[in-house]
Protein backbone atom coordinates (compact mmCIF):
# COMPACT_ATOMS: atom_id res chain seq x y z
CA UNK A 1 0.00 0.00 0.00
CA UNK A 2 1.19 3.54 -0.71
CA UNK A 3 -0.82 5.85 1.53
CA UNK A 4 2.50 7.21 2.82
CA UNK A 5 2.89 8.90 -0.54
CA UNK A 6 -0.21 11.07 -0.16
CA UNK A 7 1.59 13.98 1.48
CA UNK A 8 3.16 15.37 -1.68
CA UNK A 9 -0.19 15.58 -3.48
CA UNK A 10 -2.49 16.50 -0.60
CA UNK A 11 -3.08 19.92 -2.12
CA UNK A 12 -2.69 19.00 -5.77
CA UNK A 13 -6.39 19.40 -6.43
CA UNK A 14 -6.54 23.03 -5.29
CA UNK A 15 -4.85 26.20 -6.38
CA UNK A 16 -5.61 26.27 -10.11
CA UNK A 17 -9.27 25.45 -10.48
CA UNK A 18 -10.29 26.48 -13.97
CA UNK A 19 -9.94 24.49 -17.20
CA UNK A 20 -7.87 26.17 -19.87
CA UNK A 21 -9.10 25.90 -23.44
CA UNK A 22 -6.95 28.57 -25.08
CA UNK A 23 -3.19 28.95 -24.78
CA UNK A 24 -3.58 32.71 -25.05
CA UNK A 25 -5.76 32.95 -21.96
CA UNK A 26 -4.95 36.08 -19.97
CA UNK A 27 -2.87 35.15 -16.91
CA UNK A 28 -4.17 35.63 -13.40
CA UNK A 29 -3.85 39.26 -12.31
CA UNK A 30 -1.96 39.45 -9.03
CA UNK A 31 -4.06 42.46 -8.03
CA UNK A 32 -7.36 40.66 -8.42
CA UNK A 33 -6.52 37.01 -7.78
CA UNK A 34 -7.37 35.27 -4.57
CA UNK A 35 -4.54 34.60 -2.13
CA UNK A 36 -1.72 32.59 -3.67
CA UNK A 37 -1.31 29.21 -2.00
CA UNK A 38 2.34 28.47 -2.66
CA UNK A 39 2.44 24.87 -1.46
CA UNK A 40 -0.76 24.02 -3.32
CA UNK A 41 0.47 25.38 -6.65
CA UNK A 42 3.91 23.82 -6.10
CA UNK A 43 2.23 20.43 -5.67
CA UNK A 44 0.00 21.05 -8.66
CA UNK A 45 3.03 21.72 -10.89
CA UNK A 46 4.36 18.27 -10.01
CA UNK A 47 0.88 16.78 -10.25
CA UNK A 48 0.59 17.82 -13.90
CA UNK A 49 2.95 14.93 -14.67
CA UNK A 50 0.41 12.49 -13.22
CA UNK A 51 -3.09 13.98 -13.23
CA UNK A 52 -5.45 15.52 -15.79
CA UNK A 53 -7.70 17.70 -13.67
CA UNK A 54 -9.00 18.52 -10.21
CA UNK A 55 -11.21 15.56 -9.27
CA UNK A 56 -9.24 12.43 -10.07
CA UNK A 57 -9.68 10.32 -13.20
CA UNK A 58 -12.28 12.62 -14.77
CA UNK A 59 -14.87 15.28 -14.15
CA UNK A 60 -12.93 18.56 -13.91
CA UNK A 61 -10.30 18.71 -16.63
CA UNK A 62 -7.30 20.98 -17.10
CA UNK A 63 -7.93 21.23 -20.86
CA UNK A 64 -11.25 21.97 -22.56
CA UNK A 65 -12.49 20.13 -25.67
CA UNK A 66 -10.37 17.03 -25.13
CA UNK A 67 -11.22 13.64 -23.69
CA UNK A 68 -9.81 13.98 -20.18
CA UNK A 69 -8.68 10.37 -20.10
CA UNK A 70 -6.32 11.01 -23.01
CA UNK A 71 -5.11 14.44 -21.88
CA UNK A 72 -2.39 13.54 -19.39
CA UNK A 73 1.22 14.63 -19.89
CA UNK A 74 2.47 11.04 -19.81
CA UNK A 75 -0.15 9.51 -22.10
CA UNK A 76 0.08 12.28 -24.70
CA UNK A 77 3.87 12.16 -24.74
CA UNK A 78 3.87 8.35 -24.80
CA UNK A 79 1.38 8.05 -27.66
CA UNK A 80 3.16 10.50 -29.96
CA UNK A 81 6.52 8.84 -29.35
CA UNK A 82 5.37 5.22 -29.56
CA UNK A 83 2.50 4.98 -32.03
CA UNK A 84 4.60 6.14 -34.98
CA UNK A 85 7.56 3.91 -34.09
CA UNK A 86 8.71 0.35 -34.65
CA UNK A 87 7.78 -0.84 -31.13
CA UNK A 88 4.09 -1.60 -31.39
CA UNK A 89 0.65 -1.09 -32.80
CA UNK A 90 -2.39 0.50 -31.11
CA UNK A 91 -5.36 -1.35 -32.57
CA UNK A 92 -8.16 0.98 -31.46
CA UNK A 93 -9.13 3.83 -33.77
CA UNK A 94 -9.19 6.72 -31.30
CA UNK A 95 -9.73 10.19 -32.74
CA UNK A 96 -6.57 11.28 -34.55
CA UNK A 97 -4.73 8.05 -33.90
CA UNK A 98 -4.86 6.47 -37.36
CA UNK A 99 -2.77 9.27 -38.87
CA UNK A 100 -0.17 9.05 -36.10
CA UNK A 101 0.36 5.33 -36.71
CA UNK A 102 1.09 5.81 -40.42
CA UNK A 103 2.91 9.17 -40.16
CA UNK A 104 0.30 11.26 -41.94
CA UNK A 105 -0.66 13.85 -39.34
CA UNK A 106 -1.35 17.59 -39.70
CA UNK A 107 -1.99 20.64 -37.53
CA UNK A 108 -5.60 19.65 -36.89
CA UNK A 109 -4.77 16.22 -35.45
CA UNK A 110 -6.41 15.80 -32.04
CA UNK A 111 -3.42 14.06 -30.44
CA UNK A 112 -0.93 16.61 -31.73
CA UNK A 113 -3.11 19.43 -30.42
CA UNK A 114 -3.60 17.64 -27.12
CA UNK A 115 0.13 17.26 -26.43
CA UNK A 116 0.91 20.81 -27.52
CA UNK A 117 -1.76 22.27 -25.27
CA UNK A 118 -0.82 20.04 -22.32
CA UNK A 119 2.84 21.06 -22.47
CA UNK A 120 2.10 24.75 -22.86
CA UNK A 121 -0.57 24.85 -20.17
CA UNK A 122 1.78 23.11 -17.74
CA UNK A 123 4.42 25.72 -18.58
CA UNK A 124 1.89 28.46 -17.86
CA UNK A 125 1.24 26.94 -14.46
CA UNK A 126 4.98 26.86 -13.71
CA UNK A 127 5.30 30.50 -14.75
CA UNK A 128 2.39 31.36 -12.46
CA UNK A 129 4.17 29.73 -9.54
CA UNK A 130 7.43 31.52 -10.32
CA UNK A 131 5.59 34.84 -10.49
CA UNK A 132 4.31 34.63 -6.92
CA UNK A 133 6.48 32.19 -4.95
CA UNK A 134 8.51 33.53 -2.05
CA UNK A 135 12.26 34.01 -2.19
CA UNK A 136 13.11 32.67 1.25
CA UNK A 137 15.14 29.45 1.53
CA UNK A 138 12.12 27.19 1.07
CA UNK A 139 10.82 29.32 -1.77
CA UNK A 140 14.12 29.30 -3.64
CA UNK A 141 14.29 25.50 -3.44
CA UNK A 142 10.75 25.20 -4.73
CA UNK A 143 11.48 27.73 -7.46
CA UNK A 144 14.43 25.67 -8.71
CA UNK A 145 12.33 22.52 -8.80
CA UNK A 146 9.50 24.19 -10.71
CA UNK A 147 12.00 25.64 -13.16
CA UNK A 148 13.06 22.04 -13.77
CA UNK A 149 9.45 20.95 -14.39
CA UNK A 150 9.11 23.85 -16.82
CA UNK A 151 12.39 22.86 -18.51
CA UNK A 152 11.15 19.28 -18.82
CA UNK A 153 8.01 20.46 -20.62
CA UNK A 154 10.12 22.66 -22.86
CA UNK A 155 12.39 19.70 -23.65
CA UNK A 156 9.40 17.83 -25.05
CA UNK A 157 8.39 20.89 -27.06
CA UNK A 158 11.97 21.13 -28.38
CA UNK A 159 12.03 17.46 -29.27
CA UNK A 160 8.57 17.20 -30.80
CA UNK A 161 7.94 20.57 -32.48
CA UNK A 162 10.21 22.52 -34.81
CA UNK A 163 9.26 26.01 -33.62
CA UNK A 164 7.73 26.86 -30.29
CA UNK A 165 6.34 29.63 -28.11
CA UNK A 166 8.87 30.60 -25.45
CA UNK A 167 7.57 32.36 -22.36
CA UNK A 168 9.38 32.45 -19.03
CA UNK A 169 7.09 34.78 -17.11
CA UNK A 170 3.44 35.69 -16.84
CA UNK A 171 2.37 38.27 -19.38
CA UNK A 172 -0.76 39.52 -21.09
CA UNK A 173 1.17 39.53 -24.37
CA UNK A 174 1.06 36.64 -26.81
CA UNK A 175 4.15 34.44 -26.41
CA UNK A 176 6.97 34.85 -28.90
CA UNK A 177 7.69 31.93 -31.20
CA UNK A 178 11.34 30.95 -31.54
CA UNK A 179 13.27 28.66 -33.86
CA UNK A 180 14.42 25.28 -32.62
CA UNK A 181 18.04 26.40 -32.26
CA UNK A 182 17.02 29.32 -30.02
CA UNK A 183 14.91 27.10 -27.80
CA UNK A 184 17.80 24.63 -27.55
CA UNK A 185 20.17 27.41 -26.48
CA UNK A 186 17.75 28.69 -23.84
CA UNK A 187 17.10 25.17 -22.50
CA UNK A 188 20.79 24.32 -22.24
CA UNK A 189 21.44 27.52 -20.30
CA UNK A 190 18.49 26.87 -18.00
CA UNK A 191 19.56 23.30 -17.25
CA UNK A 192 23.17 24.31 -16.68
CA UNK A 193 22.02 26.78 -14.03
CA UNK A 194 19.71 24.20 -12.47
CA UNK A 195 22.61 21.77 -12.03
CA UNK A 196 24.05 24.34 -9.60
CA UNK A 197 20.97 25.58 -7.72
CA UNK A 198 18.81 22.46 -7.36
CA UNK A 199 19.27 20.55 -4.09
CA UNK A 200 22.22 18.18 -3.86
CA UNK A 201 19.78 15.51 -2.72
CA UNK A 202 16.05 15.37 -3.42
CA UNK A 203 13.68 16.06 -0.54
CA UNK A 204 11.29 13.26 -1.54
CA UNK A 205 11.43 10.41 -4.03
CA UNK A 206 8.82 12.39 -6.00
CA UNK A 207 10.90 15.55 -6.23
CA UNK A 208 14.05 16.32 -8.20
CA UNK A 209 17.60 17.29 -7.43
CA UNK A 210 20.49 18.55 -9.56
CA UNK A 211 21.23 15.09 -10.99
CA UNK A 212 17.89 15.06 -12.77
CA UNK A 213 18.98 18.33 -14.40
CA UNK A 214 22.30 16.74 -15.40
CA UNK A 215 20.46 13.82 -17.00
CA UNK A 216 18.03 16.02 -18.92
CA UNK A 217 20.98 18.15 -20.02
CA UNK A 218 22.80 15.02 -21.21
CA UNK A 219 19.71 13.97 -23.17
CA UNK A 220 19.55 17.44 -24.74
CA UNK A 221 23.21 17.34 -25.76
CA UNK A 222 22.79 13.80 -27.13
CA UNK A 223 20.15 15.06 -29.57
CA UNK A 224 21.87 18.39 -30.31
CA UNK A 225 22.65 17.46 -33.92
CA UNK A 226 18.94 16.84 -34.55
CA UNK A 227 17.95 20.17 -33.01
CA UNK A 228 20.74 22.44 -34.27
CA UNK A 229 22.75 20.55 -36.88
CA UNK A 230 25.82 20.57 -34.62
CA UNK A 231 26.64 17.43 -32.57
CA UNK A 232 27.71 17.76 -28.93
CA UNK A 233 28.93 14.25 -28.14
CA UNK A 234 31.64 15.25 -25.67
CA UNK A 235 29.25 17.45 -23.70
CA UNK A 236 26.67 14.66 -23.71
CA UNK A 237 29.18 12.19 -22.25
CA UNK A 238 30.33 14.67 -19.61
CA UNK A 239 26.80 15.52 -18.50
CA UNK A 240 25.86 11.83 -18.39
CA UNK A 241 28.87 11.17 -16.16
CA UNK A 242 27.77 13.98 -13.84
CA UNK A 243 24.28 12.47 -13.64
CA UNK A 244 25.83 9.27 -12.31
CA UNK A 245 27.42 11.00 -9.29
CA UNK A 246 24.28 11.34 -7.18
CA UNK A 247 22.86 8.93 -4.62
CA UNK A 248 21.32 6.75 -7.33
CA UNK A 249 22.12 3.20 -8.32
CA UNK A 250 20.90 0.58 -10.73
CA UNK A 251 18.57 -1.91 -9.14
CA UNK A 252 20.29 -5.30 -9.37
CA UNK A 253 18.52 -7.46 -6.77
CA UNK A 254 15.92 -9.93 -7.98
CA UNK A 255 13.19 -11.44 -5.80
CA UNK A 256 11.98 -15.04 -5.73
CA UNK A 257 8.49 -15.43 -4.33
CA UNK A 258 7.46 -18.24 -1.97
CA UNK A 259 5.67 -19.84 -4.91
CA UNK A 260 8.83 -19.75 -7.01
CA UNK A 261 7.95 -16.82 -9.27
CA UNK A 262 11.03 -14.80 -10.20
CA UNK A 263 10.79 -11.02 -10.23
CA UNK A 264 13.98 -9.83 -11.93
CA UNK A 265 15.67 -6.59 -10.96
CA UNK A 266 14.65 -5.08 -14.30
CA UNK A 267 11.02 -6.19 -13.87
CA UNK A 268 10.90 -4.63 -10.39
CA UNK A 269 11.47 -1.20 -11.95
CA UNK A 270 7.96 -1.36 -13.37
CA UNK A 271 5.99 -3.09 -10.60
CA UNK A 272 3.34 -1.88 -8.17
CA UNK A 273 5.79 -1.43 -5.30
CA UNK A 274 8.50 0.35 -7.28
CA UNK A 275 8.32 3.17 -4.75
CA UNK A 276 9.88 0.90 -2.10
CA UNK A 277 11.45 -2.21 -3.65
CA UNK A 278 14.71 -0.46 -4.56
CA UNK A 279 13.53 0.83 -7.94
CA UNK A 280 13.06 4.29 -6.43
CA UNK A 281 16.84 4.53 -6.07
CA UNK A 282 17.29 4.22 -9.83
CA UNK A 283 14.65 6.82 -10.74
CA UNK A 284 15.88 10.41 -10.96
CA UNK A 285 12.30 11.46 -11.67
CA UNK A 286 9.48 9.21 -10.50
CA UNK A 287 5.91 10.14 -11.44
CA UNK A 288 3.59 9.43 -8.53
CA UNK A 289 0.81 6.91 -9.10
CA UNK A 290 -1.54 5.39 -6.53
CA UNK A 291 -4.68 3.30 -6.90
CA UNK A 292 -6.57 5.38 -4.35
CA UNK A 293 -5.02 8.83 -4.23
CA UNK A 294 -3.89 9.36 -7.83
CA UNK A 295 -6.37 7.88 -10.29
CA UNK A 296 -5.73 8.81 -13.90
CA UNK A 297 -6.61 7.15 -17.21
CA UNK A 298 -3.35 8.39 -18.69
CA UNK A 299 -0.77 7.12 -16.20
CA UNK A 300 0.45 3.63 -15.46
CA UNK A 301 -3.11 2.30 -15.72
CA UNK A 302 -3.08 3.33 -19.36
CA UNK A 303 0.07 1.45 -20.29
CA UNK A 304 -0.81 -1.57 -18.11
CA UNK A 305 -4.44 -2.07 -19.12
CA UNK A 306 -3.75 -1.43 -22.81
CA UNK A 307 -1.45 -4.45 -23.02
CA UNK A 308 -3.63 -7.02 -21.24
CA UNK A 309 -6.27 -9.56 -22.10
CA UNK A 310 -8.53 -10.62 -19.23
CA UNK A 311 -7.15 -14.17 -19.44
CA UNK A 312 -3.55 -13.20 -18.71
CA UNK A 313 -1.71 -13.91 -15.48
CA UNK A 314 -3.05 -11.39 -12.92
CA UNK A 315 -1.40 -8.02 -13.31
CA UNK A 316 -2.58 -6.15 -10.25
CA UNK A 317 -5.65 -4.64 -11.89
CA UNK A 318 -9.09 -5.83 -12.90
CA UNK A 319 -9.13 -3.80 -16.11
CA UNK A 320 -7.97 -5.04 -19.53
CA UNK A 321 -8.29 -3.03 -22.73
CA UNK A 322 -6.49 -5.35 -25.17
CA UNK A 323 -5.53 -2.53 -27.53
CA UNK A 324 -1.71 -2.29 -27.73
CA UNK A 325 0.60 -5.06 -28.93
CA UNK A 326 4.21 -5.23 -30.00
CA UNK A 327 5.44 -5.16 -33.58
CA UNK A 328 7.44 -8.03 -35.14
CA UNK A 329 10.43 -5.68 -35.39
CA UNK A 330 10.37 -5.17 -31.62
CA UNK A 331 10.12 -8.91 -30.98
CA UNK A 332 13.13 -9.51 -33.23
CA UNK A 333 15.24 -7.25 -31.03
CA UNK A 334 15.08 -10.09 -28.49
CA UNK A 335 14.14 -13.25 -30.38
CA UNK A 336 15.86 -14.68 -33.47
CA UNK A 337 13.46 -14.21 -36.36
CA UNK A 338 13.74 -17.82 -37.49
CA UNK A 339 12.76 -19.15 -34.06
CA UNK A 340 10.28 -16.51 -32.87
CA UNK A 341 7.17 -18.24 -34.25
CA UNK A 342 7.88 -21.35 -32.19
CA UNK A 343 8.37 -19.62 -28.82
CA UNK A 344 5.39 -19.91 -26.46
CA UNK A 345 5.78 -18.36 -23.03
CA UNK A 346 4.27 -15.89 -20.59
CA UNK A 347 6.02 -12.76 -19.34
CA UNK A 348 7.78 -14.55 -16.49
CA UNK A 349 9.14 -17.40 -18.61
CA UNK A 350 9.96 -15.40 -21.75
CA UNK A 351 13.03 -13.62 -20.24
CA UNK A 352 14.46 -17.01 -19.28
CA UNK A 353 13.94 -18.45 -22.76
CA UNK A 354 15.36 -15.40 -24.51
CA UNK A 355 18.17 -14.98 -21.95
CA UNK A 356 17.47 -11.31 -21.35
CA UNK A 357 15.52 -10.08 -18.32
CA UNK A 358 14.22 -7.15 -20.35
CA UNK A 359 12.26 -9.44 -22.70
CA UNK A 360 9.06 -9.01 -20.70
CA UNK A 361 6.86 -10.19 -23.55
CA UNK A 362 4.04 -12.69 -23.77
CA UNK A 363 3.28 -15.13 -26.59
CA UNK A 364 1.15 -17.46 -24.49
CA UNK A 365 -1.03 -16.72 -21.48
CA UNK A 366 -1.68 -19.03 -18.56
CA UNK A 367 -4.81 -20.41 -20.19
CA UNK A 368 -2.76 -20.99 -23.40
CA UNK A 369 -5.63 -22.74 -25.17
CA UNK A 370 -7.60 -19.58 -25.91
CA UNK A 371 -5.10 -17.22 -27.50
CA UNK A 372 -2.91 -17.82 -30.53
CA UNK A 373 -0.18 -15.25 -31.05
CA UNK A 374 1.27 -14.66 -34.47
CA UNK A 375 4.15 -12.64 -35.86
CA UNK A 376 2.22 -11.51 -38.90
CA UNK A 377 -0.66 -9.28 -39.87
CA UNK A 378 1.00 -5.90 -40.49
CA UNK A 379 -1.32 -3.01 -39.59
CA UNK A 380 -3.88 -5.52 -38.37
CA UNK A 381 -6.55 -4.66 -35.83
CA UNK A 382 -6.07 -8.04 -34.15
CA UNK A 383 -4.52 -7.98 -30.68
CA UNK A 384 -2.95 -11.42 -31.18
CA UNK A 385 -1.17 -10.63 -34.42
CA UNK A 386 1.96 -10.05 -32.40
CA UNK A 387 3.21 -10.67 -28.87
CA UNK A 388 1.95 -8.69 -25.91
CA UNK A 389 4.19 -6.17 -24.14
CA UNK A 390 3.84 -6.89 -20.41
CA UNK A 391 6.60 -4.63 -19.10
CA UNK A 392 4.53 -2.53 -16.69
CA UNK A 393 2.47 -4.37 -14.10
CA UNK A 394 0.50 -3.61 -10.97
CA UNK A 395 1.83 -6.72 -9.23
CA UNK A 396 3.95 -6.19 -6.11
CA UNK A 397 7.38 -7.81 -6.02
CA UNK A 398 6.70 -8.75 -2.39
CA UNK A 399 3.75 -10.95 -3.33
CA UNK A 400 3.98 -14.72 -3.07
CA UNK A 401 2.48 -15.05 -6.55
CA UNK A 402 1.04 -12.55 -9.07
CA UNK A 403 -2.45 -13.87 -8.37
CA UNK A 404 -2.06 -13.00 -4.68
CA UNK A 405 -0.80 -9.45 -5.26
CA UNK A 406 -3.09 -6.80 -3.78
CA UNK A 407 -2.50 -3.10 -4.31
CA UNK A 408 -4.30 -0.05 -2.99
CA UNK A 409 -7.23 -0.62 -5.35
CA UNK A 410 -8.53 -3.61 -7.27
CA UNK A 411 -8.66 -1.72 -10.57
CA UNK A 412 -6.24 1.22 -10.36
CA UNK A 413 -2.55 0.17 -10.17
CA UNK A 414 0.01 1.69 -7.82
CA UNK A 415 2.89 1.50 -10.30
CA UNK A 416 4.92 4.71 -10.39
CA UNK A 417 6.38 5.86 -13.70
CA UNK A 418 10.21 6.13 -13.82
CA UNK A 419 10.36 8.99 -16.33
CA UNK A 420 14.10 9.57 -15.81
CA UNK A 421 16.23 6.68 -14.64
CA UNK A 422 19.92 6.13 -14.18
CA UNK A 423 20.23 3.55 -16.95
CA UNK A 424 19.69 6.37 -19.44
CA UNK A 425 22.80 8.16 -18.18
CA UNK A 426 24.88 5.05 -18.90
CA UNK A 427 23.35 4.60 -22.35
CA UNK A 428 23.94 8.26 -23.20
CA UNK A 429 27.56 8.00 -22.11
CA UNK A 430 28.07 4.85 -24.17
CA UNK A 431 26.55 6.31 -27.32
CA UNK A 432 28.34 9.64 -26.93
CA UNK A 433 31.68 7.86 -26.57
CA UNK A 434 30.99 5.72 -29.63
CA UNK A 435 30.01 8.78 -31.69
CA UNK A 436 33.32 10.49 -30.92
CA UNK A 437 35.22 7.75 -32.74
CA UNK A 438 38.02 5.57 -31.45
CA UNK A 439 36.20 4.81 -28.19
CA UNK A 440 34.26 1.69 -29.17
CA UNK A 441 35.84 -0.39 -26.43
CA UNK A 442 34.81 2.10 -23.74
CA UNK A 443 31.26 2.28 -25.06
CA UNK A 444 30.97 -1.49 -25.32
CA UNK A 445 32.30 -1.87 -21.79
CA UNK A 446 29.49 0.31 -20.39
CA UNK A 447 26.78 -1.50 -22.30
CA UNK A 448 28.08 -4.98 -21.45
CA UNK A 449 29.16 -4.48 -17.85
CA UNK A 450 26.40 -2.15 -16.71
CA UNK A 451 23.29 -2.34 -18.89
CA UNK A 452 23.37 -5.92 -20.18
CA UNK A 453 24.93 -7.36 -17.02
CA UNK A 454 21.95 -6.16 -14.97
CA UNK A 455 19.65 -7.81 -17.53
CA UNK A 456 21.60 -11.12 -17.38
CA UNK A 457 22.10 -10.77 -21.14
CA UNK A 458 25.17 -12.04 -22.96
CA UNK A 459 27.82 -9.41 -23.76
CA UNK A 460 27.77 -7.85 -27.21
CA UNK A 461 30.82 -8.56 -29.35
CA UNK A 462 30.63 -5.44 -31.50
CA UNK A 463 29.16 -1.98 -31.49
CA UNK A 464 27.78 0.00 -34.42
CA UNK A 465 24.84 2.32 -35.02
CA UNK A 466 22.29 -0.45 -35.53
CA UNK A 467 23.49 -2.31 -32.44
CA UNK A 468 23.18 0.85 -30.36
CA UNK A 469 19.77 1.70 -31.75
CA UNK A 470 18.57 -1.81 -30.94
CA UNK A 471 20.01 -1.65 -27.43
CA UNK A 472 18.12 1.57 -26.72
CA UNK A 473 14.98 -0.32 -27.71
CA UNK A 474 15.77 -3.33 -25.54
CA UNK A 475 16.39 -1.20 -22.46
CA UNK A 476 13.65 1.42 -22.89
CA UNK A 477 10.90 -0.07 -25.07
CA UNK A 478 7.44 1.34 -24.38
CA UNK A 479 8.81 4.03 -22.05
CA UNK A 480 7.81 6.82 -24.43
CA UNK A 481 11.08 7.65 -26.20
CA UNK A 482 11.44 5.43 -29.28
CA UNK A 483 10.60 8.07 -31.90
CA UNK A 484 13.36 10.32 -30.50
CA UNK A 485 15.97 7.57 -30.75
CA UNK A 486 14.96 6.54 -34.28
CA UNK A 487 15.29 10.13 -35.47
CA UNK A 488 18.74 10.51 -33.89
CA UNK A 489 19.90 7.34 -35.65
CA UNK A 490 18.47 8.56 -38.99
CA UNK A 491 15.96 5.72 -39.12
CA UNK A 492 12.73 7.68 -39.12
CA UNK A 493 12.28 10.15 -41.99
CA UNK A 494 14.25 12.40 -44.33
CA UNK A 495 16.99 11.80 -46.91
CA UNK A 496 19.50 10.45 -44.40
CA UNK A 497 17.00 7.89 -43.21
CA UNK A 498 16.39 6.75 -46.78
CA UNK A 499 19.98 5.54 -47.06
CA UNK A 500 19.46 3.21 -44.10
CA UNK A 501 16.33 1.63 -45.57
CA UNK A 502 15.09 0.57 -42.14
CA UNK A 503 11.34 0.05 -42.05
CA UNK A 504 8.66 -1.44 -39.85
CA UNK A 505 5.01 -2.30 -39.74
CA UNK A 506 2.90 0.72 -40.64
CA UNK A 507 5.78 3.11 -41.38
CA UNK A 508 4.43 5.60 -43.90
CA UNK A 509 1.19 3.65 -44.12
CA UNK A 510 2.61 0.49 -45.64
CA UNK A 511 3.23 -3.04 -44.42
CA UNK A 512 6.69 -4.28 -43.51
CA UNK A 513 7.05 -6.54 -46.52
CA UNK A 514 6.57 -3.75 -49.07
CA UNK A 515 9.42 -1.74 -50.63
CA UNK A 516 11.01 0.90 -48.45
CA UNK A 517 9.10 4.18 -48.52
CA UNK A 518 10.98 7.48 -48.65
CA UNK A 519 9.41 9.98 -46.25
CA UNK A 520 9.80 13.78 -46.16
CA UNK A 521 11.97 15.19 -43.38
CA UNK A 522 9.03 17.09 -41.87
CA UNK A 523 7.78 13.88 -40.27
CA UNK A 524 10.70 14.19 -37.84
CA UNK A 525 8.64 16.73 -35.89
CA UNK A 526 5.00 17.59 -35.28
CA UNK A 527 3.24 20.72 -36.59
CA UNK A 528 2.07 23.63 -34.47
CA UNK A 529 -1.73 23.25 -34.23
CA UNK A 530 -3.48 25.27 -36.89
CA UNK A 531 -5.72 27.07 -34.41
CA UNK A 532 -2.68 28.29 -32.46
CA UNK A 533 -1.09 29.55 -35.66
CA UNK A 534 -4.29 31.44 -36.37
CA UNK A 535 -4.56 32.94 -32.88
CA UNK A 536 -0.91 33.92 -32.41
CA UNK A 537 0.50 36.09 -35.18
CA UNK A 538 4.00 35.70 -33.72
CA UNK A 539 4.21 32.28 -35.37
CA UNK A 540 4.67 34.03 -38.70
CA UNK A 541 7.85 35.70 -37.46
CA UNK A 542 9.57 32.30 -37.72
CA UNK A 543 10.57 30.14 -40.66
CA UNK A 544 7.57 27.95 -39.87
CA UNK A 545 7.25 24.24 -39.24
CA UNK A 546 7.02 23.07 -42.85
CA UNK A 547 3.40 21.96 -42.62
Topology:
Layout: H1 38-47, H2 73-82, E1 88-90, H3 97-101, H4 110-132, H5 137-160, E2 164-166, E3 176-178, H6 180-197, H7 210-222, H8 224-228, H9 233-243, E4 255-256, E5 262-263, H10 265-268, E6 283-287, H11 300-305, E7 324-326, H12 328-331, H13 337-340, H14 350-354, E8 361-362, E9 388-389, E10 417-421, H15 422-436, H16 440-454, H17 465-476, H18 482-488, H19 495-500, H20 530-535
Task: Please provide a brief summary of the model.
The protein is mostly helical and 547 residues long. Helix content is 37%, strand content 5%. Helix 1 runs antiparallel to helix 4.
Features:
about 550 residues; mainly alpha; Serine Threonine Protein Phosphatase 5, Tetratricopeptide repeat; two-stranded antiparallel sheet; about 5% strand; globular; disordered N terminus
Structure description:
- This protein is mostly helical.
- It has a domain at 8-23 and 35-209 and 527-541: Serine Threonine Protein Phosphatase 5, Tetratricopeptide repeat (Alpha Horseshoe), CATH 1.25.40.390.
- It is built from 20 helices and 10 strands.
- It has helices at 38-47, 73-82, 97-101, 110-132, 137-160, 180-197, 210-222, 224-228, 233-243, 265-268, 300-305, 328-331, 337-340, 350-354, 422-436, 440-454, 465-476, 482-488, 495-500, 530-535; strands spanning 88-90, 164-166, 176-178, 255-256, 262-263, 283-287, 324-326, 361-362, 388-389, 417-421.
- Strands 1-7 form a two-stranded antiparallel ribbon. The chain has a two-stranded antiparallel sheet with strand order 2-3. A two-stranded antiparallel sheet has the order 4-5.
- It is globular.
- The chain starts with 37 loop residues before the first helix and ends in a 12-residue tail after the last helix.
